Structure formats: C-alpha cells, structure tokens
Amino acid sequence: MTALRTPPDTPATCGDLLRTWRQRRHLSQLELSSQVDVSTRHLSFVETGRSKPSREMVLHLADHLDVPLRDRNQLLLSAGFAPVFPESSLHSPQMLAVRETLRRLLAGHNPYPALVVDRWWNLVEANDSLLLLIGGVAPELLTPPVNVLRLSLHPDGITPNILNHGEWRSHLLSRLRRQVALTADHELADLLTELEGYPCDQAEEEVHGPGEVVVPLRLRIGDTDLALLSTVATFGTPLDVTVAELVIESFFPADEATADWLRASAASS
C-alpha cells in the first residue's frame, strides 16, 4: 500500500500577498482601486492571478498599502521581478554617512538617554547616558543582540526600577502589538508572546497622573525618582531596508529634578 504524501506548501503568489496586505490595511478592493486609479476589475484579476502585474504596478500598490521595504522586495520576487531595495550592513562603506549621523544624534542628546533599534527592537547604538538607566541588570540581557523590550520588561532587567511598571508595560506591548498587526512579522509575534508571559505585579492598565499628555517612564535609581518622556524618529524617504527599519528613541526629562539628576550623573561619570 503506497503511503500518501503531504504536498509541499505552495508559495504565496503576488496576488495572495497583495490581498493580504490590503486586508491588513482594512481596505476593500473598491477603496484601494480608487486610491491607485486602477479599475476594481483589474485589481481583482491581479489578486486572483488572472492578470500578471507589472513591476511598476507592484510598487505602486505597495506604496499605497504602506508595505515595508523588506516586504516590497518579497512582493517583487513573488511577481517574478528582482528586488529593488538593497539591505546593507550598517558596517558597510556605503552606510558610513548613516552611522555618523546616528552617532552625532546620540552624542548630541547627552546628558539625556537615547538609543537606536532595528525592526526587531535589537539595540544598534546608544549614547553614554543610557548606561545610567540600565545598571544592575542581569549580564545575559546585555549579551548582543540586546533586545530593548526584553531588557525593559524582563524581571531581571530594569523592571524592578520601573515605578509604573504596569502602565509602561501596557504602553510597550501596545506598540509591539500594533507593529505585529502591521507587519505580520513572525519574529515580532514570537517576541510578543514571550513578553506577555513575563510577570507583572501591577495591573496592566493606563494610570496617568493629572495633567499628563503622554505616558512617562517613571524610574527609581538609588534614592532618586525620575520621570522621562520619549520621542521616536525615523529616516525620511529611506531606500535601503536596513535604514528604513531603524528607529531612534530619545528620552527627555519630564521635570526639572530629573534633568538635574541626569546632568549631574553625566558630569560625574
């Protein structure tokens, strides 16, 4: 008796991927077709494979669907075209200007903490002031690649120093959930599952103080309570996958006492 073989998984077609991205953006075929000035009939044919899209059409649709550069390359490959967006190592010669820009930004932000992470929240660069916040964490959490979300929420990370742990955890997990929903990245989904499993002795809810307009990070370093606000920046009009996925997070003091402590600590280090 011949054993039945399970057929191999069929690779997703360009139409399959485009339909998935359209649905992920909560757009109907009619809504997308009106945005890109393509008939609904033609868009339907592309998604079902009855019509082969041109390279320009794939990129046009990907642009309107806000598909990340990494996934635009995958769309092109699935349609039979070569990728157009390079993925360069930050240590390569052509990335020298990017590296220097990042280091200037980080150094210029001292004495306040700032860092750069990649798509998976792995630490790429940090300024000296960040070291003021991560003293005493488990050494294994500082072994490269250092994941800043794991460093923030792991019980052996900076969690014991976070006064509003439940609120900050909720903030970080919400950011990660949105990222997973937007990208469908399996590594990010696995990271989310891991982080959701970490213990938290505070309710994971929003507990804002009076007059606050953003979620602060409240830390206790030694006998000093600190309050920090963060901003996020990215490179404009990136054409390289690596550059497109870099995120610069800068922390600012939320009160004068925190500013004084950071300035004094940086001066004495």
Automatic annotation (TrEMBL):
HTH cro/C1-type domain ranges (all copies): 18-72
Segments crossing the lipid bilayer: none
One function term, GO molecular function aspect: DNA binding
CDD domains: HTH_XRE
SMART domains, per the entry: HTH_XRE
InterPro entries associated with the record: Cro/C1-type_HTH, Lambda_DNA-bd_dom_sf, MLTR_LBD
Protein name as annotated: XRE family transcriptional regulator
Lineage of origin: Bacteria, Bacillati, Actinomycetota, Actinomycetes, Propionibacteriales
